[in-house]
Amino acid sequence: MAQSRSGARGSDSVGSRVIALLGSAVGLVLILLVFSTVVVATNVAKNPEISPLDEYVYLDYLSKVPTQGFVRSGEETGELARQEIACRGVLGYGIYGDPCEGTSFDADPLYPYGGRTGADIYAPVYFAVTWVAAQPLVAAGVGLLDAGRLVNILWLSAGAILLLGLLRTLGVRRGVSLGLVLLTMATPAVFWSTTYVSTDAPSLAVSAGLAWAGVAIYRGRLHPLWLPLLGVMAVLFKVQNLAIVGLTAGALLVMRVLDRYRAGTGRRLLADRVIWVSVGTVVAGLAAQVAWLAFRSAETVPGTEAAAIVTSQAPLTLRGLLSESVRFISAVGASGPSDVSPDLMGVLVVYALSALSIAAILVALLRPAAVRPSTLVISAVTLVVALATGPALVIATYVLVGYYIPLPARYGMVLLPAFLACIALFLGSWGRRGSGAIAVVGAAAALVALAT
After folding, report:
1. How far is 206 from 272, CA to CA, in rounded Å?
2. Could you report the per-residue pLDDT of 139-191, keeping only the tens digit for each?
3. Most buried one in 38, 45, 115, 281, CB count within 10 A?
4. Where residue 275 falls among pLDDT bands split at 50, 70, 90?
5. Burial 161-188 (b: 16+ CB within 10 A, else e)
6. Cα dihedral value 221, 227, 229, 234, nearest 10
7. Which is nearest to 79 in space by CA: 67, 64, 94, 66?
8. pLDDT at 15 (0 to 100)
9. Distance from chain centroid for Cα 148
10. C-alpha angle 404/349/246, rounded to 5°?
11. Which residues are CB-neighbours of 170 under 8 A, at least 6 positions away?
12. What is the predicted pLDDT for the residue at 18?
């Protein structure tokens, strides 16, 4: 009996240690690392076809970045990308190009965009980092396409961990933080960005990391000059990241101004380097994008034009602008009209995150005295940026090409950390049981999405 009790106590002790480990910061990171690996590896194995979200031209860019550095506007896609699309086909659209078993893949009209690239608008940062990270897998015999897809394990792990760190730094309970991060993994946006080679793959990590840096700068734990450096890098990953650059800089600026006035030093705003850095970060991000577009234009293949991208085109109207203004806040975590067959769990998660985001922001704005100043600022700036990003993007596109292209919802993926921060702060008053319930719901949603 004594030995039995001793064994039981030993078993209880081991169980308690395991539970304590899983509940610790290290344990939460391990959970996210393991789950990210399983999500990406499982989805990549289940989806061999080329993604309709431009994966064909992204693969072409990925294959050329070690020798060319970047792809030029008007250049033809290479044999590797053409062979993959001819053999694998495109999900929901079928086979393109020459016969898979052939040795020549030079019939330009048979390939998307007339055989030319459609990825030249992107700076090479994402492709260069992904290519380097894929090389160990390539050396082990994995093809470049699958190796590039599996690099998404790193992108998703980084995004999940940085998002968790952001929420915990904002004072959100562990259960709420973990549950919301896992719920994010059930969104269509995460599926499409981490199952295939996609320029959206780093978006979660880039945006969560930048927002976390903004919080650290506000609290004096990180030098302010990191913000413009990170902002420029974010924009060079993808221009849509300007949204999180503006949101982070804007929230930091407003908080700093409020702090100055509360401390009675409002007249010394111009002497505050954090305020100058906040403004300079947006300017630097815009300048980086303008510089890349100028370089891209100068490097266009002589005698060619950019590939004609077949998509919905319409004149720009006030109704269109209003529609785009609510595009991202009404479809949090969605991927967009190019979704071939979004699963039911993904749809439910998008509805839930959208409703919670709107509720969280409205509660903060309508009851400012009931929330902390930081919660009010984050909610207000998130709303402004979310409403302004869509119209800003379509106006920029209209100026460049002369017509209005409805935006896919996946462009709003960069705002996910901000929406989740609003939700987390909204749910922050929940007790331990509520926090645990959110963790369970998030885990269940992520597992169901993975299984389906």
Report:
1. 26
2. 999 999 999 999 999 999 999 999 999 999 999 999 999 999 999 999 999 99
3. 281
4. very high
5. bbbbbbbbbbebbbbbbbbbbbbbbbbb
6. 120
7. 64
8. 47
9. 17
10. 50
11. 215, 374, 421, 424, 425
12. 44
> How far from 318 is each of 48, 191, 312, 394, 396, CA to CA, in Å?
41, 33, 17, 12, 15
Helices (H) and strands (E) in the chain, counts: 18, 0
Give the CA-trace dihedral at 288, 291, 292, 293, to 10 degrees. Answer: 120
Q: Which DSSP letter does residue 317 get?
A: -
| Residues 361-389: tens digit of each pLDDT | 999 999 998 899 999 999 999 999 999 99
Q: What is the pLDDT of residues 85-134, one digit of tens each?
A: 999 999 989 999 999 988 889 999 999 999 999 999 999 999 999 999 99
- State how far the Cα of 362 lies from the Cα of 349, in Å rounded to an integer: 20
The residue with tokens 């302010």 is 224
Q: What is the percent of the chain where pLDDT is above 90?
A: 74
Residues counted in the chain: 452
Q: Which residues contact 156 (CB under 8 A, 6 or more apart)?
A: 36, 39, 40, 185, 190, 194, 201, 204
CA max distance for the chain: 89
Instruction: Kindly state the DSSP code that residue 187 receives in the 8-state scheme.
Output: S
Single-letter residue type at 377: V
Cβ atoms < 10 Å from Cβ of 390: 25
Q: What is the pLDDT of residue 138?
A: 98
Write the DSSP symbol of residue 118. S
Which of left, alpha, beta for 220 (phi over 0: left; psi -120 to 50: alpha)?
A: left
